[in-house]
Amino acid sequence: MNDPFRVLVSGPLEPFAAEFSRSLGRQGYTPISAARQVQLMAHLSGWLAGEDLDVRELRTTDVERFLSARRGAGHTHYLS
Fold this sequence. Notes:
By secondary structure, the protein is mostly helical.
């Protein structure tokens, strides 16, 4: 999927997805690169929902747990 606006983001980050996509475009991201960032956002949003975490209270330790979970699931990109 090469269009960041077609990446489905559900969960607590859903309200921010469209503006995040537009912001990436304004910053010069290619559609493919932007779509990958939005896919990462979607993964984080789903993880937050599964962990029952409020995005307004997200801590560095939560991000570290998310990245660890990505590594554990076999993801090889966007791990830091």
